[in-house]
Amino acid sequence: MKPQRIHQEDIELLSPEGGKPVKMWTQGVPVEQEARQQLEKLAQLPFVFHHVAVMPDVHVGKGSTIGSVIPTLGAVIPAAVGVDIGCGMMAAKTTLRANDLPDSLARVRSAIEQAVPHGMTPKTRNHKGSRDVGSWNNPPPAVDAGWAKLQGEFDAICRKYPKLRGTNNYKHLGTLGGGNHFVEVCLDEEGYVWVMLHSGSRGVGNAIGTHFIELARQDMRRHMVNLPDQDLAYLKEGTQNYDDYVEAVGWAQKFARINREVMMHHVIHALRGVITKPFETHVEAVNCHHNYVQKETHFGKEVLLTRKGAVSAREGELGIIPGSMGAKSFIVRGKGNPESFNSCSHGAGRVMSRTEAKRRFTRADAERATEGVECRKDEGVIDEIPMAYKDIDAVMHAQRDLVEVVHTLKQIVCVKG
Fold this sequence. Notes:
GMP binds at residues 180-184, 290-291, 322-325, 329, 346-349, 416. The chain has 417 residues and is an alpha+beta fold. The chain has one domain (4-351, 389-416): Alpha-Beta Complex (tRNA-splicing ligase RtcB), CATH 3.90.1860.10. The protein is built from 11 helices and 18 strands. A 7-stranded mixed β-sheet has the order 1-2-3-4-5-13-12, with helices on both faces. A 7-stranded antiparallel β-sheet has the order 11-7-9-8-18-16-15. The chain has a two-stranded antiparallel sheet with strand order 6-10.
């Protein structure tokens, strides 16, 4: 029997047979059939609590969809958290106005690119063993200070899992990465300058996520657990693997937060080098994860809540919802909607894969779509073209009962990896 789908006010409800309900804030935005199927499989897991909440930026992910909020009792799904553990956003308002910026925004972009390692060296025979361009050669003092807050706990994790020590952890702290990660200079509705950036736990988070995803799969094989999707392999509370994962994922989330703080420090320093007017920053600052898991209380139960491409939106809590390279972004204040587990979307959400975007669009398309933004416009960023994402205005309208807009930001400089 196919799951029944009914509409109740602005929430679409999926009711998979034998599973928990799936509540979707997706009115007016496209949702792939494959994403619906992933959600139905996820909701059939016996340890999912109450219901699954789905944000309007939902799209297909590994195991579970990106843009979903998953409460669990007694188990955690490492692939639902993913490998970019703690990925998230940071934004800071400055006292600068638009007319305080230099005439050449290319100078601003260049200063940021020099201050923050970004991208990565392709893994070719010639580059094997050489330094990744997206890491530090000689980490500056801010990296040392950040690493000092992380090293002791990381050493303890590595005593259990020595292979994690081989990741480029220390030299990745305060670096951007690639893909959809970015640093932007934006203007708000009153013409104030903001700095906004998007990154996570870099190589070490990837290593932790990958390692525990495999341990979960091994557990499933060992206990002959039949899953609707092998990427939904889970770790059961009370096991050593579960305890170790909770410890490691918590550390990776801390790394991600400090990573953004160090980057913001270096970006602000870079701006001071090209802007002559003295200015203050962190007038309003937000630093939020959107790929993470933590203990929270909902509907009278303490649960492990996984936000896979979703942001905490407790009542009064500030968050960040970015658009794309050519679209506006938003600083929002949560409304504390219990049905969404106090959550909102983490962005616009993709409407097509990176491969499809590269097939469909050209460099000329990218140039037109990012007109007025000082940014890369070459073939290497076509997969990030604005048309590969959902309409951010439609996404915001669909979650109007989850958040209210505090500031609307439009980027004028964008640095991509």
